[in-house]
Amino acid sequence: MNQVFEFIINSRKAFIQLIDSLTIEELNKIPDGYNNNIIWNFGHIVVSTQTLCYVRTGVLQDAASVKFNEYYKKDTKPTYTVTEEEVAELKAIALESIEKIKEDYANGKFSNITPFTTATYGVQLNSIKEILITTIGHDNVHYGYAWALKKYM
After folding, report:
1. What confidence tier does 119 reach under pLDDT thresholds 50, 70, 90?
2. What pLDDT shows up at residue 120?
3. What pLDDT is attached to residue 112?
4. How many other β-carbons are positioned within 10 Å of the β-carbon of residue 64?
5. Strand 116-117 vs strand 124-125: parallel, antiparallel, or unpaired?
6. Which end of the chain has less Cβ packing within 10 Å, N or C?
7. What is the largest CA-CA distance in the chain?
8. What's the rounded mean pLDDT across residues 61-88?
9. For the chain, first and last CA: distance in Å?
10. How far is CA 39 from the centre of its chain?
11. CA-wise closest residue to 132 among 104, 93, 90, 91
């Protein structure tokens, strides 16, 4: 599992490097024909992993403790201009939340989860390991979207 956590963290660090190479205006830009932007894609991975690991598994009752969930959860789109302060906070949460999941995993918090089926792929996830492996794919899909959106800057 250490390799899984390391891969997620390294992927998120790469996404943060992309974010750091752009202006706040570029992060917020929604190109013609699209319904989201680079910072939405980043915020989405930040809240999705926490929601999948804690809420969908039954560890937490709801997503109230997932900061920014209402703005970046599945089926949302940008409705406001994200500030540099919010970008900084999302970057911190992106890494800190994975460290927290890693700690909770080590402490057995996910040893008895409720399996669930993903809305996107229709696949049942039965363990935290399966959820985190799915997270790797999900994070990188949105990283790819962000790189594609960058060509419009």
Report:
1. confident
2. 83
3. 94
4. 10
5. antiparallel
6. N
7. 46
8. 97
9. 37
10. 11
11. 104
Name which of 89, 99, 87, 77 is nearest 19 in CA terms. 87
Average pLDDT along the chain: 97
Q: Please enumerate in sequence order all residues whose Cβ is within 8 A of that of 116, keeping only pairs 6 or more positions apart, or say none.
A: 56, 57, 124, 125
Q: For the chain, what is the HEC assignment?
A: CHHHHHHHHHHHHHHHHHHHCCCHHHHHCCCCCCCCCHHHHHHHHHHHHHHHHHHCCCCCCCHHHCCCHHHHCCCCCCCCCCCHHHHHHHHHHHHHHHHHHHHHHHCCCCCCCCCEECCCCCCEECCHHHHHHHHHHHHHHHHHHHHHHHCCC
Average pLDDT over residues 22-29: 98
Given a contact cutoff of 8 angstroms between Cβ atoms, the answer to whether 52 and 134 are in contact is yes
pLDDT confidence of residue 153: 87
∠ CA(75), CA(71), CA(59), 5° rounding? 80
